[in-house]
Amino acid sequence: MKFEQLYNGDKIPVLGQGTWGLGGGLTRDLSQDEMALKVIRSAIELGYTHIDTAEMYGGGHTEELVGQAIKDFKREDLFITTKLWNITLNQADALSALEGSLERLGTDYLDLYLIHRPNNNIPLEATFRILNQAVEAGKVKHLGVSNFNLEQLKKAQSLADTPLATNQVPYNLHDRRYVLNGVLNYCQEEDILLTAYSPIERGYLLDDPTIVDIAGKYQAKPAQIALGWLISQKNVIALPMSTNRAHLEENLGTLDLEISESDLEILDEIELPEEVLFPV
């Protein structure tokens, strides 16, 4: 695995395993727990030590599954991220939500805790008072945000007592909204990681003719090209998600891929779908 270094010397893998859909969507689904546990354990065994989840996933059940899966591994070898859902962005609920996530995950601390979505109806100041206290108390190592535009990111940055680790946003070869709105450039200037979720756009990128053509040149998979383009960029890491062990292995093969500058430029120029041409 390759890593990016955080401000205090901690390292975060450039590829992590997402968990959206494992354990349910917005509500809990117990029907595929055995499969979900197998997926998470397989990912860790293969080298995905960064596991990303959220209290919203599966109504909290996804965190429970992650907690069960990571019992089989040394906690200090893992990098666990979860997220505070936007409906709990006030001081009392933020503390309750954090404690709930820690309990479901079966851990005393989080490596990274994100505000899942901005909530313009609740001042960030109150939330960050709790989050800063959580870092000081050792319950959270690093803070970050998710789905924040540039103005919101700057506001969060001003309220965090420690440097923000990341802004986790949708970003891939077909979705450049957070390039167009200035977030990626700002993250690179401020040494904040941009964590790309939906890095292969739920599989839609795999049929893009330009990506397929370049993959052929390297005897690689289209997903590897899509992921390689992302992590070739300064301060960008990615969260691919798969329930298929072979695909998990293929995605890790991205780390051995070196895409030429000329091919990266061709990928930069892929024509974007109209619906993602407008910044948020």
Molecular structure report:
The protein has eleven helices and ten strands. It has helices at residues 33-46, 61-70, 91-105, 124-136, 150-159, 177-180, 183-190, 209-217, 222-231, 245-252, 261-268, and strands at residues 3-5, 11-13, 17-18, 50-52, 79-84, 110-115, 140-146, 166-170, 193-197, 236-239. It has an eight-stranded parallel beta sheet with strand order 3-4-5-6-7-8-9-10. A hairpin with a 5-residue loop joins β1 and β2 (11-13). The protein is globular. The model has no long low-confidence stretch (mean pLDDT 95).
The major sheet is characterized as: 8 strands, parallel
Classify the fold: give the CATH topology: TIM Barrel
Indicate the overall shape.
globular
Oligomer: single chain
The CATH C-level class name: Alpha Beta
Distance between the termini: 32 Å
Considering DSSP H and I runs of 4 or more, what fraction of the residues is helical? 25-40%
Say which CATH homologous superfamily is assigned.
Answer: NADP-dependent oxidoreductase domain
- Work out the strand percent: 15-25%
Global structural class: alpha/beta
Q: What is the strand tally?
A: 10
- Uncertain ranges: none
Features:
alpha/beta, 16% strand, 8-stranded parallel sheet, 280 residues, single chain, 39% helix, 11 helices, globular, TIM Barrel, two-stranded antiparallel ribbon
